[in-house]
Write a structure and sequence with these properties.
Layout lengths: L1 H28 L1 H8 L3 E5 L5 E6 L2 H22 L5 E6 L3 H12 L47 H11 L9 E5 L5 H15 L5 E5 H13 L3 H8 L4 E5 L8 H16 L3 E6 L11 H7 L3 E5 L4 H12 L9 H10 L4 H18 L5 H7 L1 H7 L5 H12 L13 H17 L4 H7 L5 H17 L1 H15 L1
């Protein structure tokens, strides 16, 4: 009993010391870094012989990251706080790796990335069922509504997803999210799951890919467990199926999904599907299933425009604080990495990782040098001639007015908009742009760019015109 008392007393003392150390690190590192890397640390036992204290983190990635960057600081803090602690050992929480492997086996694939930090992918405690189904399989803690950045391109889908997760019964069912690769549809699926669990703490949720659904169904057929498969699948309160475009070929699996949809909807349960194309464009899917998929709300998620791409980058920068990324680098990435959000965030992550590992400052030159593969894949060469032609069509003026000396407002303002777009969408310098507009001086171009920037903040019509032109030129 005395040994137990001593151990309990030491645990209390260590916890108190850790609270002081953690608070000090929070002041030194800032809220974001502390929350991301220090707060998840759990105290383990202290070895009486060596004085080594075990510190545990939820994933191998986070353990390595903290060990590389904070091991010396943590060891020093503990030596100051407690004479009994002579060293610290940072490792993965025992049993964590095994749980992660079970999760991967359950879902059949790793969690979707979409730019989420691997350290945030703490694995939920899953109870593996007879057919690999669990109450909340595969939900990534980092993919929440709070982490989803909205803009004109995705606001409908985001609002519909939030409605689907509310406590009140949604007005539409099922919800079908349509978006090209890397535009955030998987993020919304996970976010729906998290929000639904908050509103319904005892709910049973199943997230899977259509491909995994087919694999599980075929396995149930082979093992003669189709009745168990049906019963378990229909016991969920929320069914989230990703990449539904892969539900092809196997007619019996499609038929089972059809019956599952009917059964869940009849019981007032919720279903969300995601795909890279509209239901009517799915290949090899029988008409009855297509009608079920499109009977609720089909919410399109368009490619992120430059404004949304900039907002996404700025939101992601929060977790790298206090590291600073210059505004011209953010603007450069937002203008040039246009194919999808996943590549955009991946480019930012790669740039920051390179800068941190080499000790260099993040700058425009470094971005151009280190992201050549991403930039070359995304580069759509928009010319000043194309910009002038598009602007003239939009404002219904003659193309010659781009180079004319006329000062009428109906001509000057479109010309200034074209100069602004030329600076935003092309790598041309101010003098080069001026030469394309009738040999105008670079100061004239600078004035036009600053004027349109200012007007966009004060004039909703002007901002709408520029947004429309950006969409036309980038499409």
């Amino acid at each position: 009993m005395r040994d137990d008392t001593i151990e309990d007393s030491e645990a209390v003392n260590l916890a108190a010391d850790w609270a002081d150390i953690s608070q000090g690190l929070r002041k030194d590192l800032g809220h974001q870094l502390h929350s991301q890397w220090i707060k998840p640390i759990q105290l383990g036992p202290r070895c009486p012989q060596t004085g080594t204290l075990e510190l545990y983190l939820p994933t191998e990635f986070s353990a390595n990251w903290v060990r590389d960057r904070f091991a010396d600081r943590l060891a020093l803090a503990w030596k100051i706080a407690s004479a009994e602690v002579r060293a610290v050992n940072i490792s993965v929480l025992p049993g964590r790796r095994q749980v992660a492997e079970l999760r991967l086996h359950t879902d059949g694939r790793r969690p979707a990335n979409d730019g989420a930090d691997p350290a945030m992918r703490a694995v939920a405690a899953d109870t593996i069922g007879a057919l690999g189904f669990t109450a909340s399989v595969g939900l990534d803690p980092a993919l929440t509504f709070a982490a989803f950045v909205t803009g004109e391109a995705n606001v409908l889908a985001a609002n519909a997803a939030q409605r689907m997760a509310m406590a009140e019964k949604p007005q539409f069912a099922p919800l079908y999210l349509k978006a090209a690769t890397g535009q955030g549809k998987t993020h919304l699926l996970h976010a729906i799951g998290h929000a639904f669990l908050l509103a319904h703490p005892r709910a049973r949720i199943f997230y899977c890919s259509a491909e995994r659904f087919m694999v599980e169904f075929v396995q149930a057929l082979k093992t003669k467990q189709t009745l168990e498969f049906k019963a378990r699948l229909r016991s969920f309160d929320l069914l989230l199926v990703d990449d539904i475009q892969f539900i092809i070929g196997k007619e019996s699996a499609q038929e089972e999904l059809l019956y599952t949809i009917d059964a869940l909807l009849a019981e007032g349960k919720r279903l969300v599907f995601a795909a890279d194309r509209a239901p009517q464009a799915l290949d090899g899917v029988e008409p009855r299933l297509l009608s079920r998929l499109s009977m609720g709300l089909v919410a399109d998620m368009a490619a992120a425009d430059i404004e949304l791409r900039r907002k996404i980058l700025e939101a992601k920068l929060v977790r790298f604080a206090p590291l600073e990324v210059p505004a011209d680098v953010i603007d450069f990435l937002a203008r040039t990495v246009t194919r999808n959000v996943r590549e955009l965030v991946g480019g930012l992550n790669k740039l920051i990782a390179y800068a941190q590992l080499t000790g260099q400052e993040v700058c425009l030159q470094l971005a151009e040098e280190q992201l050549t593969d991403i930039l070359s894949a995304n580069r759509k060469r928009i010319t000043i001639d194309e910009i002038q032609r598009t602007v003239c069509q939009f404002y219904r003026i003659d193309r010659a007015e781009m180079s004319s000396k006329r000062r009428a407002r109906a001509v000057v303002r479109p010309r200034q908009v074209a100069m602004y777009l030329a600076k935003v969408l092309t790598p041309r310098s101010y003098p080069e742009i001026g030469r394309k507009f009738g040999g105008r001086d670079h100061s004239t171009v600078i004035h036009a760019v600053r004027l349109i920037e200012d007007l966009r903040t004060r004039d909703a019509d002007m901002d709408g015109d520029v947004r429309s032109l950006l969409r036309q030129l980038e499409s």
